[in-house]
Amino acid sequence: MAIEKMKYVSLSCSKSHLNEMLEMIGKSQPIHPILASQLVEDKEGVLLNEENPYDSYAQSFQNIGHMVGCVLKEKEPTGTYSEAEIQNYIAELNHEFGLDTNGEVEILSEDDEKALHELAPLGFERMKEAQYLNFGLGRLPLDSYKKISLYAGESFSIHKLHSNNQYVWLVYVTSDAYLKRTQKIFHSLFFEPIQIPAFDREKRVQECRWKMMDVYSYCLKQSSILKLYPYVLKKDERYEFDGFVPARKIQSFKALFKDVSIQEKEPSEVSIPCPTILRNNWFTRPFELFVEMYGLPKYDDFDPTSFVAVTYSLIFGIMFGDLGQGLVLAILGFLLEKKAKLFGIIARVGVTSSIFGFLYGSVFGLEEVLNPIHQQIFNVREKLLDVMDGSNTMGLLISAVLLGASLILITMLMNIWNNARHKRWIEVFLSQNGMVGFGFYGFILVAIGARTLYGISLTSLPFMIVFVYLPLLCFLLKERFEAVVEGHSFKPSEGWLGYVVQNFFEVFEILLSFVTNSLSYLRVGGFILSHAGMMLVVMTLMKMTGTAGIVVFIIGNIFVMGLEGLIVGIQTLRLEYYEMFSRYYTGGGTKFVAYSTKSAD
Questions:
Q1: Is the pLDDT of residue 103 over 50?
Q2: Rounded CA gap, 384 and 367, in Å?
């Protein structure tokens, strides 16, 4: 319904409280920060240029955790660590877990891990410390494992750990004297060795988990603070951080800070463009999607979402009028509305489609089922509006053009109001979408209506001078009036002949746009007939297929809802953008983006 009110805030503190202030800003998230480089043009100060090594440290911990199977979660760190301590701890972990060579480690399969798990009770440390015994861990193809019995007399023993339908994992043990002989035997059996770790890695990971998470969380915390440094401006011995906060959250935002000076200003008091937050009710909120696609309104502009919601739902419903199909769209849209705004739009246009479908007497393409209800409610012979009756075709098309003309006039009034708010008086009075354009277009419509309905001619000279010739002259001279307002001469620099020749074609284009914009709404009536025609084809095919008719009926309705719904949706959006937005809306606003450490990544 409106654009949310904002406040411009300036936070400043001493160096000793800088990190504390930035940490709280990173957690609070209702502020849209301003880069210090934008502020330094208006305020004297120095930018902070600090490197952020903690980002790479945190990434190193994530890599180590991934390699050793330890999921690191962010928490509130309990200690502080110098860069040297962090670097040494990373090096220690890399060395201990065998990650020294480019951070790589032997990747084990799930079956390998199961075998290691079975072997762990024997004690990896004890196996490594054995002086006269040698252990070998690995897997044998299933066929090779069956041949082990042929070497029953050899000086080694085996212990089966794990198996699947292809391999058997085992560990063998032999003495120093028979090691080479044993290795040769297993090599001939296609033995695939796995390195026995120096310690129980899983156990060691659990022992290191707490400290790894603590140091990792500390790195994330420091990194999030340093990411805010580009928004800080140093002025003397104070550090300033500026941004925009929603007015309704300003008190709770200020309450978060201690030892910080906070100044408030209205957005109009600063040169920095204020970001925009749209606030709309339940019905209109999904249509913010279309407004954002075209361009958010500026902070001091107005929010067109409500107008878009009403006109889009109305036009779509008129073109896609079917009670049954509309209810299907509405149900699906409401069920999936939380997934995306687009489904919310589908739900709402489904409701209007159902309403107009009831008025047309159409339910899944069945054109006669609602006739008894229409006859009882509206006291008509068959039904209220038969769109397939040829005698109604011209009326539908004329009604579509009249609907378009009404919307054009409404958007002109909206443009006049919006320009008057900003005191752009030339646009208010002399533009094609201003008061002169409104009078010109409105007179043409009234003149055509009076001539058609009552045979009255309004083309007498006084009417033509006031409502036609004078507006055309205003269109022609609008550029010169703008020049006078800007302090230039009324006389064009290229001379009046060159000016008139050049702007004559612009005036002709304006006249042509009035015609084409009006006729563009013929598509509304055309799609009413198109939708009914497609359903007539479905009904005809259903009758022709006999017992399979119900299948054709269902598939046909799904096809029409998908194809026709998509086409009608696109055409309605086209009318919104090209025939309406172009008359009263410019966009150009900046989206409010609340700061968070994740959005800064």
A1: no
A2: 11
What is the helix, strand, coil percentage profile of the chain, to 5?
Answer: 60, 10, 30
What residues have CB less than 8 Å from 466, skipping those under 6 apart? 439
- pLDDT above 50: residue 104: no
Which residue shows structure tokens 């609340």? 594
Cα 418–chain centre separation: 28
Least confident piece of the model among 128-137, 298-307, 448-457: 128-137
Rounded Cα–Cα distance for residues 360 and 9 (Å)? 56
List of domains in the chain? 2-39+231-269 (3.30.70.240), 54-105+203-221 (no CATH), 110-194 (3.30.70.2750)
**What CA–CA distances, in Å, run from 268 to 58, 253, 272, 299, 565?**
41, 21, 9, 10, 44
Using DSSP, state whether 168 is helix, strand or coil.
strand
Helices (H), 493-545: 496-520, 522-544
In the prediction, which pLDDT does 601 show? 47
- Length reported for the chain: 601
Distance separating alpha carbons of residues 297 and 584, to the nearest angstrom: 11
Read off φ and ψ for residue 17, nearest 5 degrees: -110, 5
Confidence category of residue 197, pLDDT binned at 50, 70, 90: low
Going from the C-alpha of 378 to that of each of 324, 385, 556, the distances in angstroms are: 20, 11, 30
Nearest one of 352, 363, 351, 397 to 529, comparing CA atoms: 397
Which of the 8 DSSP states describes residue 575? I
pTM of the model as a whole = 0.78
Residue 254, SS3 per DSSP? helix
Closest C-alpha to 329, from 573, 574, 1, 568: 568
CB 169 within 8 A of CB 115: yes
Distance of CA 167 to the CA centre of its chain: 49
Distance, in Å, from the CA atom of 115 to the CA atom of 160, rounded to the nearest integer, reads 9
CA nearest neighbour of 58 among 32, 89, 28: 89
Alpha helices in 192-256 (DSSP H): 201-226, 250-254
d(CA 494, CA 415): 31
Residue whose pair of structure tokens reads 């990792």 in the numeric block: 216
Rounded to an integer, what distance in angstroms lies between the CA atom of residue 330 and that of residue 336? Answer: 10
Residue 41: count of CB within 10 angstroms of its CB:
8
- Give the separation between CA 45 and CA 576, rounded to whole angstroms: 46
In the numeric block, the tokens 């880069």 are attached to: 35
User: Do residues 595 and 33 lie in contact, with contact meaning Cβ atoms separated by under 8 Å?
Assistant: yes
Distance CA 588, CA 302 (A): 12
Our CA angle for 457, 463, 468, nearest 5°, is: 105
Quick one: pLDDT at residue 101?
A: 44
Rounded Cα distance between 177 and 291, Å, is 82
* Helix-helix angle 496-520:470-485, to 10 degrees: 120
pLDDT tens by residue, 307-316: 999 999 999 9
